[in-house]
Amino acid sequence: MPGARGWPGPGGGEISHLDPPTMWRATTVQACGLWPFAAGSGSPMTGVPLGQHLYTGATVCGDPISWFTRARYISNPSLFMLGMPGLGKSTLVNRMLIGLAATGVVPLVLGDLKPDYADTVRALGGQVISIGRGVGGINILDPGAMGAAAERLGGTAGQSLAAEAHGRVLNMVAALISVVRTRPMEDHEQSVLAAALHHLRERTPSGQAPLLPDLLAVLQEGPDRVRAVTLDRGDDTRYRDAVDPLHRSLLGILDGPLGRTFSSSTSTRIDPAAPAVCIDISRIGESDTQLTAAAMLAAWSDGLGTVAAAHALADAGLAPRRWYFTVLDELWRPLRAASGIVDRIDALTRLNRSLGLGDAKITHTLKDAEALGSESDRAKARGFVERAGMVVCAGLPRTEMEELGRVVGLSRREIDLVSSWSSPPGWAVNGGHGEPPGRGNFLIKVGGRPGIPIKVAITQTERDLHNTNSRWAAGAQTLPTARGATR
After folding, report:
1. Residue 380: strand pairing partners
2. Contact status, residue 465 vs residue 123, Cβ threshold 8 Å
3. What are the E-state strand segments in 23-101?
4. pLDDT in tens, 429-464
5. How many Cα atoms within 13 Å fall on the side-chain side of residue 138?
6. Beta-strand pair 277-280/106-112
7. d(C-alpha 93, C-alpha 326), whole Å
8. Close Cβ partners of 204 (under 8 Å, ≥ 6 residues apart)
9. Within a 10 A sphere around the Cβ of 301, how many other Cβ atoms?
10. Which residues on neighbouring strands pair with residue 326, listed in sequence order?
11. Is the dihedral of CA 253, 258, 264, 267 positive or negative?
C-alpha cells in the first residue's frame, strides 16, 4: 500500500497526490466476488440508463417519468433540453424513448419534423402516421378516439366525454382559422362556429364523422340554431354579414394550401393500443409555416384526445392504465409557426401531471423564444424552462449559459464546463472525420441540486435507428472529386 509520501521499496518514489480510484456500481449478482466490499456512488440509478458520470465513471439513470413517479426527485414530469446542433440532443431523448417503452410507457411523437423518431417507433412495433400533401391528412372534425370511447362508455361518463370531444373539435377549428388569418377569431365568430358544429353533430349519422365542406354547407343553409346566435332577427342580410368572415376563412382553408390535408377523412387513425405512435410531418417543407403549424396543432389535438380517451376507459375499468411520454423536438419551428401552438404547449406543461403524461421539449437556445411575435408568447415560452422538472444542457455558448444560469441556477464551474462542449472539432487531416469535443456530453440540472455531467455512448443499434445525417452519408459516395484533389 502507498504511504503518505508514495510507494515504498525498489522502483517507488515520492508523489504529491494520489487520485482516488474510480467507483463503479453493480448488483450483487454482477459483482458477487466483490460483495460486500463494494462502495456505491452518489449518482441516481432510477430510470433509463443514460450514460456514465464524467468524473466518477458511475452509471447515471434518469428520465422525467421515473424521477417523478418512483424516485420523487422532481415535482413535474417534464424535461427541457437545450444545446447547439449536432451534439446529440435528440439521441439522448431517443434513448429515453426506448427505455420507457420497455417499461410499458407509450411514447408519442406528435409531429416528427425531421423525422428523428419514426424508425425507432417502427422498431418498437409502434404506429407511424405520415401527414402532408399527397401523403395523408387529418379530419379535424373527427372526434377520433374520444368519440369511440364516449359511445363505449355511455351514460353520464359517455356524455361528458362527448362534450369534451366537441370542445376539442371547436378549439381545433378555431386554431386552424387563426393560422390562416394569422390572428385569433372574434368572440362572436366562435359562438357561431360552436352552434354550427352542434347542429352538424346532431344531423350526422352515428359512426360517421362530418367534414369541413359539411360545416360550410351548414353556414350556407343558416339553420335556426345558427341564426339565433348571430342576432339576425329574421334579416338575411344581417345573418350574412355575421357569418361571411367565418365563411371566407373556411373557404380559404379548403381552397388554400391546407385544403387537401384537412378537408377529407382521416387517412389513418391513432391506434390507442399501439406501443408507440409517431406522427411524421417531415414531408412538409420548412418554408411552409402555415401547413407546419396546422399539422402540429392537429397532431397534438388528435394525440392528446387519444390520451384522454384512454384514461376515461381506464377510469371505467374498460382498459388498462397507461402512462405516456410525448416528444416535441425542434421546438423553435412550431413556436414560430403560430401563437396557438405556444398556448397549447403552455397548457400541456401545466396539466401533464393530471394527464398521466411526461414530456420532453428540445430546442437550441433560449433565444429561440425571443423571436416570437408578442411579449405574452415570449413569456410563455420562457416559462417552459422554469417549470421543467429536469433541464438538460448540451454544448452552449457562454453568453447563453449565463442567461440560462439566471433561470435554473448554474454555478460558474458548470457554466465553464458546458461552454467548453460547444467548441468545434479540430481541423481534420488526411481525410479524417473530427467530432465536436462536446458531442454526447450533457449536464442534468434538477432544481438547486448540483448538476450531473454525463457522457452518453450509443450502441450500434441506436446509431442505425437514429442517424440524423443519413442523407449526407448516402451522398458521400457520389460527390465528385475536385480536380487536383486526392481522396
Report:
1. none
2. yes
3. 49-53, 59-61, 78-82
4. 555 566 777 889 999 999 888 899 999 988 888 888
5. 29
6. parallel
7. 10
8. 210, 214
9. 21
10. 108, 359
11. negative
